[in-house]
Design goal:
The protein has a 7-stranded parallel β-sheet, with helices on one face. The N and C termini lie far apart (about 35 Å). It has one domain: NADP-dependent oxidoreductase domain (TIM Barrel), CATH 3.20.20.100. The chain is globular. Helix 1 packs across helix 2, helix 1 packs parallel to helix 9 and helix 7 packs across helix 8. The chain has 10 helices and 11 strands.
């Protein structure tokens, strides 16, 4: 492993989720520690586990995963690498997809399916209760209220501490909050793709955590030029500046960049210490 300052992720500041889970505001997305197409085991299982251990040693105390990553593989690796979990480490997982092969995803929001996959996540993660369980994606074949109602039942049964939603609109967020307390939203959002701007604003207004997936994304030539200019001034990479922009965007934002490489992980975590001033943030935002 490479050397990295302990608790380096703390430079991003903290976020309290659901009133009782305080974590550093730079997390780790565990989708990329599995095989190609988010399918099957990684080429090197020990390398994947070392990435997880290094993330925690570097101050990352929020890890996001899902039963569909592998499927099952990501959750298994997290438990193998980190259980029994250190105090303060939050493992968030998701349910609501069926997988039939590499890069194949089919929404499944049936209450019976959600109950089944929650029990599987509890077993694989070696937990009695999931700190944050997120509905992975609305299923057009199942009323949203039925899917969220199933999670509410499992929360009352003591198997879920907090509930979040993912890939949701402002309207779906409002609908979900009318059914069960929601503490977070996870949507695609990055420097280039700001299509969930309204959802982020709704989360900020309500004090809900917002986890941008694909947090570095890609950039148009113009946006890339602005990133590169600012990166030179901060002795950073454009991707680090894109993460720093997310951290500056709102105090409810908690980026969850993922990687299967310790070197790349260190680069991501170093973004926590990059602080853009207001003028730099505006220059990026307006590009």
């Amino acid at each position: 492993m490479t050397d990295h300052p302990r608790n380096a992720a703390a430079a991003a500041g903290t976020l309290t989720i659901g009133g009782d889970l305080t974590v550093n505001r730079l997390g780790f997305g565990a989708m990329r520690i599995v095989g190609t197409g988010v399918w099957g085991p990684p080429p090197d299982r020990e390398r994947a586990k070392n990435v997880l251990r290094h993330a925690v040693a570097s101050g990352v105390n929020f890890i996001d995963t899902a039963d569909s990553y592998g499927p099952n593989v990501s959750e298994e690796l997290i438990a193998e690498a980190l259980a029994p979990y250190p105090a303060g480490l939050v493992i968030a997982t998701k349910g609501g997809f069926l997988r039939s092969g590499p890069d194949e995803w089919e929404p499944d929001g049936r209450p019976a399916h959600l109950r089944e996959v929650l029990e599987g996540s509890l077993r694989r993660l070696r937990l009695e209760r999931i700190d944050l369980y997120q509905f992975h994606r609305p299923d057009p074949k199942v009323p949203y209220a039925e899917s969220l109602g199933a999670l509410a039942e499992m929360q009352r049964a003591g198997k879920i501490r907090h509930i979040g939603i993912s890939n949701a609109s402002v309207e779906q967020l409002a609908q979900a909050r009318a059914i069960v307390p929601i503490v977070s939203v996870q949507n695609r959002y990055n420097y280039e793709d700001r299509s969930s701007e309204d959802v982020l604003d709704a989360c900020a207004e309500a004090g809900l955590a917002f986890f941008p997936w694909a947090p570095v994304g890609g950039s148009s030539p113009l946006k890339q030029q602005v990133l590169e200019r600012l990166a030179r001034g901060h002795s950073a990479t454009p991707l680090q500046i894109a993460l720093a922009w997310l951290l500056k965007r709102s105090p409810v934002v908690l980026p969850i960049p993922g990687t299967g490489s310790i070197a790349h992980l260190d680069q991501n975590i170093a973004a926590a210490a990059i602080h853009l001033d207001d003028a730099e943030f505006r220059r990026l935002s307006d590009a």
